[in-house]
Amino acid sequence: LWNVKTLLQNSKLENLKVEMDKMNVDVLGIAEMRWPDGGDFWSGEYRVIYSDTYKPGQGGVGIVLKKDLGKRVKGYVHRKGRIILVKLDTEPINTTVIQVYMPT
Questions:
Q1: What is the CATH number of the domain that holds 14?
Q2: What residue numbers bound the domain in which 57 lies?
Q3: Cα separation of 19 and 21, whole Å?
Q4: Residue 4 counted as domain residue
Q5: Rounded CA gap, 57 and 8, in Å?
Q6: The pTM is what?
Q7: Is residue 5 part of a domain?
Q8: Do 83 and 68 contact (CB within 8 A), yes or no?
Q9: Which of 54, 9, 63, 78 is nearest to 31 (CA)?
Q10: Distance between CA 100 and CA 4 in Å, rounded?
Q11: Which InterPro entries match (predicted)?
Q12: How far apart are CA 32 and CA 8, in angstroms?
């Protein structure tokens, strides 16, 4: 378990990708990304899919996928910075990845 505390600073995403490589992680769920709006983009060999926030600078969830899995995304949905669901076209059956943020 690793707490990046937020991904508001650009360098944090780069650090996250380095750690994913070192630990051989293909899929990573993130809580409290704190990025505005929702989006889907490629950052080098990684696909980042993230939700909006329920309040500016708070909450937000996301999923980071290595290139092979990033290419297999069939669709995704997110709601109010608390939950994101990504559907992957995998064999022998499709895979669904869910990341949920429930603040204490």
A1: 3.60.10.10
A2: 10-100
A3: 5
A4: no
A5: 8
A6: 0.89
A7: no
A8: no
A9: 63
A10: 16
A11: Endo/exonu/phosph_ase_sf (IPR036691)
A12: 9
Q: What is the DSSP code string of the chain?
A: --------SHHHHHHHHHHHHHTT-SEEEEE----SS-EEEEETTEEEEE---SBTTB--EEEEEEHHHHTTEEEEEEETTTEEEEEE--SSS-EEEEEE----
Q: Please give the pLDDT value at position 103.
A: 79
CA-to-CA distance for 36 and 21, rounded, in angstroms? 26
Read off the pLDDT band of 74 (50, 70, 90).
Answer: very high
pLDDT tens digit sequence for 5-62 = 667 667 788 888 999 999 999 999 998 888 878 899 999 999 999 998 877 778 889 9
pLDDT value of residue 2: 55
> Is 62 part of a structural domain of the chain?
yes
The phi, psi pair for 87, rounded to 5°, reads: -100, 130
Determine the length of the chain: 104
Q: Based on the structure, what is the number of domains in the chain?
A: 1
What is the mean pLDDT of the segment spanning 74-89? 94
Considering the domain boundaries, does residue 26 fall inside one?
yes
